[in-house]
Amino acid sequence: MRVRCKMVLNTVTMRMGQKAKYDEAGKHVGYEDRLLYDAAFSAVYSSNKDDENKAFWDATPSGKFEVATVIQMPWQIGKAYYIDVTPADA
């Protein structure tokens, strides 16, 4: 079952973090400092019955999604994005 969420990007913050480091054989050899980008999304809202956001709001009136990446994503604060949640087969 797939669920589609419509979220708006509220903030993107940068912070220092660490990423695992591996040698040529794939063995973990420690960590390296990396710049991380934290993106925080919340559920969209609209009171206009003809707006797509109203349908999403009716189904999910509250919610948040946060993700950290090691690369700067081209997301724009204030813009809405679809986030699909799909089961991952093990």
Question: Can you walk through the features of this model?
Answer:
By secondary structure, the chain is mainly beta. It has one domain (3-85). Helix content is 9%, strand content 53%. The protein has a 4-stranded antiparallel sheet with strand order 3-2-1-4. The longest helix has 8 residues, at 52-59.
Write a brief structural summary.
This protein is mainly beta and 90 residues long.
Question: Helicity level, as a percent range?
Answer: under 10%
Note the main sheet: 4 strands, antiparallel
Which term fits the overall shape?
elongated
Helix-strand category: mainly beta
Give the tally of structural domains.
1
How many E-type strands?
A: 4
How much of the sequence lies in strands comes to over 45%
Element-by-element helix/strand order: EEHEE
- Determine Rg (CA atoms, Å): 17 Å
Overall pLDDT confidence: 90
Head-to-tail CA distance between termini: 15 Å
Total number of helices: 1
**Order of strands across the main sheet:** 3-2-1-4
Low-confidence stretches: none
